[in-house]
Amino acid sequence: MRRPIAVFTALLSLVALSAACASGAKKTTAPTTPPASSGRTIIVAAFNFSESQVLANMFADVLDNAGFRASVKTLTTREVVQPALWSGDVDVVPEYTSSLATYLNNHDMGSAAPSVASSDLTKTLSALRAAATRHHLVVLDPSSAANQNAFAVTRAFAEANQLATLSDLARYRGGLTLGGPAECPTRPYCEPGLESTYGITFTSFRTLDAGGPLTKLALKSGLIQVGLVFSSDPGIAAYGLQILSDDKQLQDADVVVPVVNEDVASVRLAGALEGLMKVLTTSDLIQLNASAELQHVDPATVAHDYLAGKALLPST
Description:
Layout: H1 5-21, E1 41-46, H2 50-65, E2 69-74, H3 78-87, E3 92-96, H4 97-109, H5 121-133, E4 137-139, E5 149-154, H6 155-161, H7 166-170, E6 177-180, H8 191-198, E7 204-207, H9 213-221, E8 226-230, H10 235-238, E9 241-244, E10 256-261, H11 267-277, H12 282-294, H13 299-309
Parallel strand pairs: 1-2, 6-7, 6-8
Antiparallel strand pairs: 3-10, 4-10, 5-8, 5-9
Helix pairs in contact: 2-11, 2-13, 4-5
């Protein structure tokens, strides 16, 4: 039988209230009663890219440390991962707030439905949780670690023109070629948004990839001056690039968040995962991705070393 979400939410609220009341007094002790799911392995799903695989291994490690048995199962895209989570084939997924909110909204309401994701994390999270309840999912508290659209220039170009933000770029009066995926000239977060939100004028657009090596090479070589990248990409530093701050919040807030099938949800499980979310940052993601993608360290090793360094696992 599925555990009612209202009951689980009330439990989480009670734990939060107890912690707040105990601030400055004795340290509270975490519940020791095993969750109903402790008799079986908790399966953490990963998407088929290295960042997700590192995150999934971190989730599994902190769950193991909390007394669960957890394993990682690598799948492919959200179109595969989410149905597996709904059905209980997997139990937990490290997800991204705006991406999942948009996916669930389009799945349930149709692709023409108004967007529920925005740069406002609180509103996006509220919409995500409402959509998640329709699929018997519990969305835990998110991290501050973001993997979202961003725009980069070379460090040399930024220094020469005193650029730190996209608003600074709007004051640049030279020619600007923008590079990105083929859909960029029609997507509101890309060229139209840069023009309408920031007033940036581009002289041309070059079709490349979505934040991949073609875009980074085109920036480094001077073929383009501005490129669409992803905020947690370790290649940004490796290629001598700099992200310009989205100071007018054009992009949706897309931060790492644990999503759990309600059949395995418990205060103990939430506490283990949210403990990790409290320390994980975008800078951490970049370093984790650098280890996995640039240094080719196994994602499980990357995950374990990070958790040990943050004292989230016992020292060995």
